[in-house]
Amino acid sequence: MILIKRKLFFKGYVEVTIKGIQAEQMIHELSVQRIPFYNLKRVNRHELIVMMKYRDALLLRTIRKKYGLKITYQKRGGVPHFYSQRKRWAPLILSTFVAICLLFVLSNMIWKVEITGGSKETRYEVELLLSELGLQKGNFIQQSGNLSIVELEIMNKIKNVSYVGIERQGSSYYINIQENKEHQQNPDKNPSNLIASKAGIIQNIYVTRGRPMVRVNDFVKEGDVLVTGFLADEGDVYTYSEGTVIAEVWYNIKATIDLNKERLKLVDQPAEKYTFSIAKWEFFGGQPSSNSRLLFEEERPLYFLKWELPFTIHKKYYYEEETVTESFDDEALIIQTISEQLKRRLGQSIEIDYYKILHEEKDNDKVNIELFVKLIEDISEEKMLTEEDMKKEEDENDNEN
Q1: Cα–Cα distance for residue pair 6/177, rounded to 1 Å
Q2: C-alpha distances in angstroms, 329 versus 131, 259, 263?
Q3: Which of 143, 175, 302, 379 is 20 to 30 A from 209 via CA?
């Protein structure tokens, strides 16, 4: 019986009860017309049970009239019967499938990013940088990349931060930061001013502690007070000054640049390829060319609720090793080199706003150059206040009043 059901599963089957005086004659008629039937059983003298294919059972309706029999269909099964009942099971299966897909998508999204520690200003800077790195609410977890790299990026690009710890709990990220001691607010710190470390035209002022003494577009000389720790409006109170004063500064630069050496540093952007893996087997992405070398690989697993699935998206960076002859813009290369040297000397926050080449002399692959460069940089420098400085500021404030 079980073997017969398995045999008829894909074609469909039904058990037919035949009642009537000429039930046996009808079975004989089926044999004559070569209509297959299986598992014939006699219930009593005028009642038989037979199993037939789903489509063949429909032929019995015309034959039974000839013999005046009563036919009853029972225990239907197989693929055709299951498909005929689709109005019952299809909505349930479809809704279950949609619910699983929705849970899968939501499990791979970032729902919370919480930053603790540090000052309000530093937390804001970290939040902006995290958005650039893809770690923000509403993004997919796979967009955020490796957490160790994110931690390094924060510590490298935000000078106030000395430590970053990122912990992932499900679809939530908790970021703890610690600031350098010199950037933390300290009520016991000695009073100080921010003075100009060089001459320039003020472009932007951001003061977190102290009283600003200059405005945007003011010209200041080296040593001028930009922010004072003397709070005259609060009754001759002194505090330490803290903030950033961005100014436009001009430099006259003379340098010798080895163009051949600098060209060797220029590398094409690596090619990015994505692959998808299930356990240890990788699919899609294609094979890199024979001249390609794998530089770096990021693995980004997929999740369902809090569980990590055996499905992983791989992001691979390849570099073409073949020798290619390319033409370079020497002027752009010179400015890029000068910019890198200035950033190493003055800090990564400086920006070249304008430049003018005054003199250029080439000797093979070396260039002797003189140029004017306009930089946008922070010119503030902290200076502790002595008793003489405090007395002087009090006298000046009394004279103004």
Answers
A1: 65
A2: 34, 11, 10
A3: 175
Number of domains the chain is built from: 5
Strand partners, 297: 316
> Each residue of 154-182: pLDDT tens digit?
888 887 787 888 888 888 899 998 887 55
Distant-in-sequence, close-in-space partners of 5: CB < 8 Å, separation ≥ 6: 13, 77
Q: 128-159 as b/e, with b when 16 or more CB fall inside 10 Å?
A: ebbeebebbeebebbebbebeebbebbeeebe
Beta bridge partners of 389: none
Tell me which residue range forms the domain holding 128.
112-182
Measured distance CA(103)–CA(96) in Å, rounded: 11
Element containing residue 73 per DSSP (H, E): strand 70-77
Separation CA 107–CA 304 (nearest Å): 5
CA distance 4 to 125: 72
The three-state secondary structure class of 27 is: helix
- For residues 260 and 341, state if they share a domain: yes
Residue 336 identity: Q
Element (H, E) at 263: helix 259-265
> What residue has token string 């010179």?
334
Whether residues 243 and 386 share a domain: the answer is: yes
**Residue 82 φ/ψ, nearest 5 degrees:** -60, -40
d(CA 335, CA 291): 32
Residue 151 shares a structural domain with residue 229: no
Q: How far apart are CA 27 and CA 14, in angstroms?
A: 16
Q: Are residues 315 and 369 located together in one domain of the fold?
A: no
Q: Report pLDDT digits (tens) over 190-248.
A: 788 899 999 999 999 988 888 888 999 999 999 998 998 877 665 567 788 888 899 99
